[in-house]
Amino acid sequence: MSLNSPIFLKRSEENNSKFVETKQSQSTSIASEDPLQNLCLASQEVLQKAQQSGRSKCLKCGGSRMFYCYTCYVPVENVPIEQIPLVKLPLKIDIIKHPNETDGKSTAIHAKLLAPEFVNIYTYPCIPEYEEKDHEVALVFPGPQSISIKDISFHLQKRIQNNVRGKNDDPDKPSFKRKRTEEQQFCDLNDSKCKGTPLKKIIFIDSTWNQTNKIFTDERLQGLLQVELKTRKTCFWRHQKGKPDTFLSTIEAIYYFLEAQKPAEEACFSDDTTAETI
C-alpha cells in the first residue's frame, strides 16, 4: 500500500487526533490533581534569611521563636513584618481552637499571620454568639447533616426566608397583609437575583480529630449550616496517623474552601498590594 494513499493518510490523521486528545486529557488530569496550581506565591527570601540567622525574639512577649510567635500571632524580630504579604479574603474567618491543641503545631496561626484583618482565633470554651446570624454563617465540619460548598447559597437563602416568615407570622395582622409582606421580602430561590451568596463568615475547628467532638457538640454551634469538603485530600506532611487522607489540616481546609468559593476566572483573591500564600 502506498504511503500517499487516501486510506493511509486518513488513518494517520485519526492516530494524530487520538494522540492529541490523549495528551490533552493527561494534561487536564495532572492539572486537576495539583491543588495548588493557582496559588500565588510570594518570595521566600525573607524566611530563608531568618532560617540562616536562627531563632529570634518576639517583639510582644519576648519569647524565642523561629519565623513567628505562635502565642502572639506576629512575625519575630528577624522577619520584618513589611516583608510578609497580607492576604485580602472575601469573607471573615473564625477559628475555634481546642485548649489542648499545641500552639506550635497549629496551622490556624498561619492564616492569622497572613490575613490578620480577616481571621480571628478563639480558644475554646470561648465562642462568639452566632444565633442571630445563622443565615450568614457556616461551619466547616463533616457529618451526616453537612452539605457541599456549591449548595451554601441555596440553604442560606432558605434560612433568610424562614426568618422573615417567623417575623411576619403575627396573628393580629390580617392574612392578606402578611401575604403581601412576604411577597415583598421573599424572592424565588431560582431567581438570579437571589443567587448571590449571603455568606459573610465561615467557622473552622482547630484541633486533633479525636478532640473535635467537644467543640462540635457545643450548643453555641448547633443549628449552624454545616459544610463538608468532600473531594479534597491532605498534602500536609504531619498527617494524623490512623485517619483517612480526606481529614485536612486547618490551613488546608481554609485554602480549599476559599478556592472553591472564588470565581473561576480569578487567579487568586489578592489585589495588587497583596499576595496569597496560604
TrEMBL record:
The keyword Transferase applies. GO terms for biological process: tRNA modification. Keywords: Nucleus, S-adenosyl-L-methionine, Transferase, tRNA processing. One of its GO terms (cellular component) is nucleus. It catalyses: a uridine in tRNA + S-adenosyl-L-methionine = a 3-[(3S)-3-amino-3-carboxypropyl]uridine in tRNA + S-methyl-5'-thioadenosine + H(+). Its main location: nucleus. GO terms for molecular function: tRNA-uridine aminocarboxypropyltransferase activity. It comes from the Eukaryota. Residues 65-263 form the DTW domain. It is found in: Nucleus. Pfam families: DTW. Its EC number is 2.5.1.25. SMART domains: DTW. Catalyzes the formation of 3-(3-amino-3-carboxypropyl)uridine (acp3U) at position 20 in the D-loop of several cytoplasmic tRNAs (acp3U(20)). This is tRNA-uridine aminocarboxypropyltransferase 1.
